[in-house]
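Anyone able to model this chain together with iron/sulfur cluster?
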Amino acid sequence: MKGGSKTKVIKEIKVDISKCTGCRSCEMACSAFHAVPRYSSLNPSRSRIRVYMDEVRDLYVPIRAGGYTQSECNGRNLYVINGKEYSECAFCPASCPSRDYFKEPDSGLPLKCDMCEDETSSSEPMCVVACKFDALTYEEREEPMQENEVPAIEKQVELKVAYESLVKKHGTKKLMETFFQLSKN
Ligand code: SF4
Ligand code: SF4
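re: yes, here you go
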């Protein structure tokens, strides 16, 4: 750290597609870890990582859930892997209205990878721990923070305070109904 300047920790899950066997242990581990109560169920449709599988072409690609997008985008990527083309949305991490991926199956609310941040008993995210083929590996590095950048932990505290005040004002049920409606728009 230079001259007292602040740093942030960048967390990275490196994906080595050539090692992925499509076993889906990562999906199981993520869904169990995020079940309520924790580890009470195994349901890959609740996982924040999904494995794109093309068994004919022998291709397996683990993709972690990214941000929620309110509307389907009109920009598309076309992937060519080993000379074979893959559909434009196949590897997209977004929770998007045009498909069912990365949505909580009961509520329809978007799912996003949180890097298992509230797990203190493991130094690695659950999907990485579950992957026995080293297709997923975890790394951390420090980077200097931009001027005026708010540390992630402070943002979380701000969000928690805002959420608690909304619950106090409107009640959990009303709030969840509103989130559900927003996720459908
Ligand atoms: S890091 Fe945690 S939340 Fe993200 S996909 Fe892996 S197990 Fe799920
Ligand atoms: S646990 Fe590892 S090898 Fe199995 S599907 Fe997930 S990333 Fe691939």
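The chain has a mean pLDDT of 85.
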